[in-house]
Amino acid sequence: MMETWYYVDSGYCTPAVNMALDEALMNWHRDKKIPPVLRFYGWDPAGLSVGYFQKVEGRIDLDGIRRHGFELVRRQTGGRAVLHDKELTYSVIVSEDHPEMPPSVKDAYLVISKGLLEGFRNLGIHADFAVPEGKLGTTGSAVCFEEPSWYELIVDGKKAAGSAQTRKRGIILQHGSIPIDVDDEKLFDMFIYKNDRVKERAKRAFSDKAVAINTILDGEVSFEDTKTAFEQGFKKGLGINFEPFNLTSDQWDEVYKIAETRYNNDDWNYAR
């Protein structure tokens, strides 16, 4: 018999609420109130999420974020900054002691990324797992999509989905970005460069490193179509069934409290 996970379609939320809901789902799963979870969501307004240990001062252009009406939020997971705009974002929340979850982060990436692989296939996109050679992170860039990590998804050598994982008190959270469209101008307004020449060079190089769904397909795939493709992809890739889970008003109150005390807090978002 196939295992059943909860499926949460939380629609579009603010950056702070998006991060707070991931944290709340981790807490409820740890307390055995809910089974493992797959969640899909969007961002309104668009947000720039920075990694747990990432430095903001001197790296992130806060004026650029405000100018575009975006919001900055710090993730629980590590890695570099991601602009969440025209994308589908996913979260997987599952216990470390789940029989299908390997003990190493890298191997767990492979298991979860099988759902992403099948999702791309459902859209008619031939994606592969990234297996980087040599040491990652040599560019020193603050931009997440500059380089693929182990078992992230690439198409024709370009990064098509970016993920990050953390493990806290026995629970794995892996969440990631599946770009549907990318606006290079807005993306590079989020970061500080030594001068305009360096910024333009980075912008030109980016098109050789990352790609979005609608660029691959040369057409228009909607948020809803993408969500359906990846829901079915996770079912096949992980060999599980889903039961829709709708939060109660009390549960939403708990999420909003986490958002207000942590993810809307400047000490959390900027002081690292």
TrEMBL record:
What is the protein named?
A: Lipoate--protein ligase family protein
Positions of the BPL/LPL catalytic domain: 32-242
Keywords on record: Ligase
On the tree of life, the source organism's domain of life is Bacteria
Organism of origin: Halobacillus salinarum
Keyword Nucleotide-binding attached: no
PANTHER family the record matches: OCTANOYL-[GCVH]:PROTEIN N-OCTANOYLTRANSFERASE (PTHR43679:SF2), OCTANOYLTRANSFERASE LIPM-RELATED (PTHR43679)
Q: Does the keyword Manganese apply?
A: no
Q: Give GO terms: molecular function aspect only.
A: ligase activity
Q: Which residue windows are transmembrane per the record? A: none
